[in-house]
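Summary of Year 1 activities. Much of the first year was spent building the evaluation harness for sequence design. The harness presents a backbone, in tokenized form, and records the residue chosen at every position. We chose the following record to illustrate the format because it has been used consistently in internal testing since the harness was completed.
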């Protein structure tokens, strides 16, 4: 094991301790309002970017920016392969930036992009793109691949699957996570949104799920034909309306597997992947808690059910 991986793994274990934790998130979820929940987060890793006057949307963005900052710091301690690993872990945020840029080019409002720094891949080229065609060319020349179209919805779905495929290359645990993510993404696209899967996305989906799941069929048939490594994500989901449960299950599986990876000890990419995923799940849970605090007691019950 190289000295770079050794230092990177040690740093990963240290940075994983920056999580706010389940207990803190639960207290936030049951607080009276968002301002009170934000005050509860003042002493956590997220506190530096938060203050009680923030809107829910701004607070969630600040939490995600804190996550990305911590992962950028972690990347600075990694060998080149470790930095590549972390680019894959955060690729969903780059995908969000890319889709937002597509909407901006179509006349929509420009959002506040996530600051990825050295963890970006295609974003610097996409940000400079003046047309949808230029965005597509930038993606085709990057690890994302050619989305096969230029409309935001098609590109957004392709990026979900492409990100899952990139994640699958990081090890056996990551491959199971990726298969579950892909199964949920296809289910949402076909059975909830009612959209046809284009050829480019279907080719990526086939690498993760086989060819059958991407073809229109009944919900029950879809579940039956999923490969074993993906079916777990949809266990107990009786209809497409309950896909929010599957999305939560995917995150919680990543958290449980990552805790086990850290528990095993050792050095190398395993602890780095585990620490990064634990931080991602923590940020998701805290955002879910803020939404619960902002909405109602019923929302807090939903938080308990999924987070």
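For this record, the design step produced the sequence shown next.
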């Amino acid at each position: 094991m190289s000295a770079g991986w050794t230092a990177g793994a040690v740093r990963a274990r240290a940075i994983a301790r920056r999580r706010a934790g389940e207990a803190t998130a639960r207290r936030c979820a049951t607080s009276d309002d968002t301002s009170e929940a934000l005050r509860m987060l003042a002493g956590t890793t997220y506190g530096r970017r938060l203050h009680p006057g923030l809107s829910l949307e701004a607070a969630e963005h600040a939490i995600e920016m804190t996550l990305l900052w911590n992962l950028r710091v972690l990347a600075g301690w990694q060998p080149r392969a470790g930095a590549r690993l972390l680019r894959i872990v955060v690729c969903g945020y780059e995908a969000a930036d890319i889709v937002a840029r597509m909407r901006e080019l179509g006349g929509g409002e420009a959002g506040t992009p996530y600051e990825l720094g050295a963890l970006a891949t295609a974003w610097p080229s996409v940000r400079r793109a003046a047309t949808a065609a230029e965005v597509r060319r930038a993606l085709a020349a990057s690890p994302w691949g050619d989305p096969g179209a230029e409309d935001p919805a098609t590109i957004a779905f392709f990026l979900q699957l492409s990100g899952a495929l990139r994640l699958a290359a990081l090890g056996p645990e990551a491959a199971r996570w990726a298969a579950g993510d892909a199964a949920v993404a296809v289910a949402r696209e076909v059975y909830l949104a009612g959209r046809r899967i284009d050829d480019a996305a279907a080719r990526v989906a086939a690498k993760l799920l086989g060819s059958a799941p991407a073809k229109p069929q009944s919900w029950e048939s879809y579940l039956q034909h999923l490969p074993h490594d993906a079916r777990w994500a949809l266990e107990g989901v009786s209809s497409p309306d309950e896909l929010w449960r599957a999305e939560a299950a995917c995150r919680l599986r990543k958290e449980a597997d990552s805790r086990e990876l850290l528990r095993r000890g050792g050095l190398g990419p395993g602890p780095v992947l585990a620490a990064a995923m634990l931080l991602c799940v923590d940020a998701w849970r805290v955002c879910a808690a803020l939404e619960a605090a902002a909405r109602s007691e019923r929302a807090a019950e939903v938080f308990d059910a999924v987070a």
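The chain has a mean pLDDT of 92. Quantitative recovery figures across the full test set are reported in Table 2.
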